[in-house]
Here is the input.
Amino acid sequence: MAEKGVGLASEQEAREVAEAAREETWENRSLARGIFDGRVALDLVHPHPEPDPEEQERAREFLGRLTEFARDHIDGDRIDEEGWVPEEVLDGLRELGCFGIKIGREYGGLGFSQLTYNRALSVVASRCGSTGAFLSAHQSIGVPQPLLMFGTEDQKKAYLPRLAAGALSAFALTEPDAGSDPANMTTTAVPTEDGEAFLLNGEKLWCTNGPRAELLVVMARTPAREGVRGKRPITAFIVETDWPGVDVLHTCSFMGLKGLSNGVLTFENVRVPKENILWGEGRGLKLALITLNTGRLSLPSFCAAAGKGCLEVSRWWGSERVQWGAPIGKHGAIAEKIGSMAATTFAMDSVVELTSAMADAKRFDIRLEAAIAKLWNTERAWEIVDDAVQIRGGRGYETAASLAGRGERPIPVERWMRDLRINLIFEGSSEIMRLFIAREAVDHHLEVAGDLVDPRAPAGRRVSAALRAGLYYLWWYPTRWLGWGHWPRYGEFGPLATHMRFVNRASRKLARNLFYAMVRYGAGLERRQAVLGRVVEIGSELFVMTASCVRAHKLVGERPEDRTPYELADLFCRKARIRVGELFRQLFSSVDAQTYRVASRALDGSYEWLESHVVSTMADVERRSHTHSAATPPASETAEPAGAGAGASA
Ligand SMILES: Cc1cc2nc3c(=O)[nH]c(=O)nc-3n(C[C@H](O)[C@H](O)[C@H](O)COP(=O)(O)OP(=O)(O)OC[C@H]3O[C@@H](n4cnc5c(N)ncnc54)[C@H](O)[C@@H]3O)c2cc1C
Here is the structure.
């Protein structure tokens, strides 16, 4: 890793790189974009988009076989204990066609939809998170996804049949200094003298599947040259791991997903033919981000599957376990958790079904919906598994092996919790998802008034932006007050109509508040992450409410005798409305500035005194790393008690 700050991209450079990699245009409509803009385009998703019946028929048979295989051959506890997904499991999945679920049949794949793919991942992940991650890293972000989207016909013919037949692949973007911020990427690919290939050099961190993969998609810096966009272009390459110069430097292990094969990969003068560039020189970062836009739909399905598992276990234990004279599920505090878990799981599932159907329909721009699904489902699943551990009490904290060892049912809630935590970090951390969603949510305002709030824009452009914005907002602002969000609108939703009316009103209120925020903070809004975070939370809740109501309406339409979807959607929406109300009340909270000040003081060491009377972890780690390298003597052994307010910073 670079020494702190040395050689790293500046904030401005990082922003420019991210901006250049954005998809600039919106060629298709987006439900979520409309929600942030005060316009709920319900016609996009109501009636709920339907899958192709012929494909669903084929899918039923495939999912049936996969469910049997997962039940009989994938042992999540054993994989967790041994830290290894056995080759027989991967072979079994290969035989079922699971390495090419979305790859077209003309290339040897199964040619299934995003919906079927997500359902298949849910089945596998419900048995073992690590095995689910194998399939997802291979297909959602590994070579097949960018190849299907951006590959030439020759590239597809060369690689898709191999991938569908079971050649494991991986996605290599992250580096020690390039985590959320790709501007710091240092892996390079330099053209050879004959111009026929590139020499790849560098190191990639945390590459899932990397140590066992046959094929990689690798992002690397290529030289700036005429005809290639950007000052420091990034290009994507398909790389074969048996080429000379590709190595696994280290195999990583983690808190959960113990069976994952993940490592640090190094590239030393790896000769990559120029035919292996995906989508063209300089387009690699955009490719990576667009790949993630659809790839992100897998994690929400894992999370919905986790919600279902937690609900099943909590429901059983809530009735089975009797304490204080009643089943624990009858005690209000536990009932509250179980009720919320059922309603939230329904909402998570609705998000997966809707976003998958939208992806399959291919007539929507789902970048915002996929990001919301990723952010929202991963955070809810974490809360749900926390509740499941609490409901199981001490047994929730005990490993499955230990439970079995003393004759109890080996319910792996402890493993689920460890496995789920990473979902809030990889494929776009929650913080980065909030920034991404906020950026896209304000996009059309920036199109209209961007130059007005950009301090670097020349005076002429600012004046014309002021005129343009004046005219635009003269029309836009009143229309965000007008609109009918009351009875009898949305009557077809029956008991849920009231919630759809709320979504309609709250969406307009959200758009107005976003406008106030822009007026209030101007260009500084992008630094108001707490405010933007709340804007994103509100928009996300409204999207999820819509997904839940639309799905409940569809399910009740299919089986009118069963009203339970209404019950779940209704409870979810009531709770979401309380959260949205609170978020609006706190939108411009004055505690934000104070919190930021305290964080700055914490960072500069002003509260170091608070860390006294414990053994210092940092000093200990430093001492141990010095001992390992047998180099310089250790720093201080313990954190010395310091006087309150001493503010002694290192
Ligand atoms: C198990 C595992 C599997 C992985 N698999 C892959 C893979 O297959 N391929 C691959 O390329 N990568 C992979 N990764 C990397 C993963 O995508 C990164 O961990 C992730 O992008 C975050 O980067 P980072 O860990 O360096 O965190 P950092 O970028 O250092 O961020 C640290 C914290 O700061 C926050 N933060 C950063 N910037 C901002 C900001 N501007 N505003 C607010 N908050 C911010 C982050 O959200 C995070 O909470 C994997 C990681 C793990 C642990």
The pocket of flavin-adenine dinucleotide is lined by residues 137, 170-174, 179-181, 206-208, 254, 257, 262, 422, 425-426, 429, 431-432, 435, 529 (CB under 6 Å). The two ends are 21 Å apart (CA to CA). DSSP finds 24 helices and ten strands in the chain. The longest strand covers residues 197-208.
